[in-house]
Amino acid sequence: MMVAFCKFVSKYKILSLSSENLNQRIMKHLLAIAVFFILLIGTASAQITPSCEPDSAFLASGALVDPSPYVNDTLGEGLPDACLNTPYDLTIFVNPPTIFAFNGIEIGVDSFTIDSIINLPKGLSFACSAENCLLKAGEVSCIFLSGSPSNENTDTLYKLKIHLKVHTSLFPIPVAFPDPLLAPGHFDLVVHPEGNAACETVAIHNYQTSVTSIHLFPNPVSDVVNFKLEDAGEINDIKIWNQSGALVKTVLTNKSNNQISVEELPAGFYITTVQTQNRIYRSKFIKY
After folding, report:
1. Is a pLDDT exceeding 60 seen at residue 14?
2. What is the DSSP string of 14-50?
3. What is the DSSP string of 61-84?
4. What's the distance, Cα to Cα, between the start and end of the chain in Å?
5. What confidence score (pLDDT) does residue 23 get?
6. pLDDT band with cut points at 50, 70 and 90 for residue 232
7. Of 186, 182, 189, 222, which is closest to residue 88 (Cα–Cα)?
8. Higher pLDDT residue, 18 or 126?
9. What is the distance between the alpha carbons of residues 281 and 214, in angstroms, rounded to a whole number?
10. Is the pLDDT of residue 207 over 60?
11. Percent share of the chain, pLDDT over 70
């Protein structure tokens, strides 16, 4: 009887130890899986985090935003088109001013807070490079539009408005952008059907506004800017527009003369349009 009891106790201890070891092994496996998913999520987040690195021309221009709101067929790049069920990823560079004009009075600005973007197509959302979408005055930040427009969208044109607060040295001021006081024009987003050709060539992440078919150099420039045009057509004219949208110079030229004198222009940011028989090309330069 005593021998049988001892065998029972011994067997129970083995079972207990086996059960305890099994639980430890299960816990180790669960911990390993948890660590794996944490690392996976962290890696994925690092991979999809958009960059906020504007080009030097935007930094030197003093412009508030790039791409700039659409004004007309010549001025303002506007937003690239989107397509249903197609990934859309756009970076908008923002350079908040340090001075804000309110009722004719200039007030010092500390920062801007992006509250919302209204009229975004369903399936798209926004995020900011700055924490809590608090953009410091005088420092370049970014707004990221991303997602895939869904079939729930019934309109084809969406007029986007960025609602923000200007935190001045006196009091916060609510503002809707684009706005004539900040930047004229429109942020209109066109949504095409799935598979539309417009989305096959659209520039998406880190959207660059300058066309690749025209190259201006040197840039910045002090007196004479050279241009190289890939188009084979004859050039009809070249026009230069200032940041306010006013035409400041028209040059009648041909392919044998690829230089433009800008010595008489005041320092600032300019948009150049080159019209050929085939199309109009647009680029930008800085005069210092």
Report:
1. no
2. HHHHHHHHHHHHHHHHHHHHHHHHHHHHHHHHHHHPP
3. H--SEESPPB-SSSS---PPPEET
4. 105
5. 53
6. low
7. 189
8. 126
9. 7
10. no
11. 67
Delimit the CATH 2.60.40.1930 region(s) of the chain.
214-287
Task: Supply the DSSP symbol for 184.
Answer: -
Domain with CATH 2.60.40.10 in the chain: 56-199
The pTM is what?
A: 0.59
Hunting for tokens 């949504």 — which residue is that? Answer: 191
Where would I find the beta strands (DSSP E) of 169-262?
Answer: 172-177, 187-192, 214-217, 224-229, 235-242, 247-251, 259-261
Tokens found for residue 185 = 């024009």
CATH class for domain 214-287?
mainly beta
CA distance 33 to 208: 41
Average pLDDT over residues 25-47: 41
Residues 267, 265: Cα–Cα separation, whole Å: 7
Mapped onto helix, strand or coil, the DSSP state of residue 238 is strand
User: What 3-state class would DSSP assign to 214?
Assistant: strand
CB 258 within 8 A of CB 227: yes
- Residues in Cβ contact with 204 at an 8 Å cutoff, skipping those fewer than 6 apart: 80, 87, 88, 89, 90
CATH 2.60.40.10 fits domain 56-199: yes
Please name the residue that has the structure tokens 């009887």. 1
